[in-house]
Amino acid sequence: MKERTAKFDGRAPSRLIKNESKEDYLESIYLLQQELERPIRSFELSEQMNLSKPSVCRALNILRDEELVTMDDDYFISLTEKGITEAKRVYAKHCYFKAILMGAGVEEDTAEDEACRIEHIVSDKSFSLLREKYPVSDPVN
After folding, report:
1. Alpha-carbon gap, residue 4 to 113, rounded angstroms
2. 27 burial class (0-12, 13-18, 19+ CB within 10 angstroms)?
3. pTM for this one?
4. Alpha helices of 4-73 — where are they, by DSSP H?
């Protein structure tokens, strides 16, 4: 297998995906695996995220290179321990902010959309401090 490397020339290498996108992929894989109770296929992720199969395939290759996912010989995708940890971290933020927003009276659909954006911009340190000061039940095990 030929080694793939990204050479930095001042522009973002095409093999990189934004952190927000990476977190969305990990969270989606995590939730889909929880729902289906098994490893998933790329087409299932494509349908779940409403993205093209080639886009999902490119992102999965990057996640695999970063050791966040594995793919077996039958093309089933699983999160690595590192991937699970990262996915749970993002999902915990999502659930927390959705609960806070709904507790403030925001409608569920709006809270869902806004929590999805907030989860990517709040640092882990700020999130930890917020959870200490304003606790809500934690659905992530």
Report:
1. 36
2. buried
3. 0.81
4. 19-36, 42-49, 53-65
Q: What are phi and psi of 77, to 5 degrees?
A: -100, 135
What single DSSP character describes residue 70? E
Cα separation, 73 vs 19, whole angstroms: 28
What is the pLDDT at residue 17?
58
- Give me the residue label for tokens 């080694």: 3
Q: Which two tokens stand for residue 46?
A: 């494509």
Both tokens assigned to 50: 């409403």
The residue whose two tokens read 């087409």 is 43
pLDDT of 60 reads 96
Residues 134/67, Cβ–Cβ less than 8 Å:
no
Positions of the chain with pLDDT lower than 50, given as ranges: 1-16, 141
pLDDT value, residue 137: 77
Count of beta carbons in the 10 Å neighbourhood of residue 20: 14
Residue 57 half-sphere exposure toward CB, CA atoms < 13 A: 5
